[in-house]
Amino acid sequence: MLPDRERNGRNARIPVKPVSRGRALCRRMVGMHTAWDAVGDGEFFCPACGGDRNYQRLTGRRRFVLLGLPVVPRGTRGPVIQCAACQDLFDPDVLDHPTTTRLSAMLRDAVHTMVLAVLSTGGTGSRTVLETAVCALHGAGYDDCTEEQLVALVDALATDAGRATEPDCGPGLAIELHEALGPLAPHLAPAGRDALLLQGARIALADGPYTPAERDVLSTAGCALTICSEDVTRLLATARTPS
Question: Which residue range or ranges hold the Co-chaperone DjlA N-terminal domain (predicted)?
């Protein structure tokens, strides 16, 4: 059984005040009591622990207790999420935050999509561009990626989606960027979103100034990352400035 505790702020830890022995006994004899039942489990990112933990989804039945016996039903509580490690309770929307493992996978997919989007504008013809793209993918965890594989993948995607006839960031490519970058953006700090866009910008600049198609793709990526147009322009100019 868990104590009947009330929340103090969204996804916040529930403070527990010290209770004297006499008051604790009185609460067990007279007052409200919640009987919790587990209705599901899984893994989540616990805000209190600061890492991935197992959880249980709980629902509760409230009853008025007299002389230690539950006598009058007082409705239900929950559902709530209980961390298996720290035992804290959270609102179910805490599950909207991806686990560390899931966040890493989302970031890898985002880098991969960004690289392919920039290369799809014609960058596969430059050895320098390909080397920069492969370096970015290696940094994201694609250790086995080669330049030949990238060229083959970009060619296959162009043939499959008809991108060879698209002079700029067509609807299909824009959708892919938003699908890969949009869900990730709320979970990245502004510096993280900027860094992801700058990776794409440096690939585009590896063979010279931005082409209109490259700038269009990077602007679409910035929009998907919820970076305002003024900041996108500033970041693209920063990437072009020699360090």
Answer: 147-234
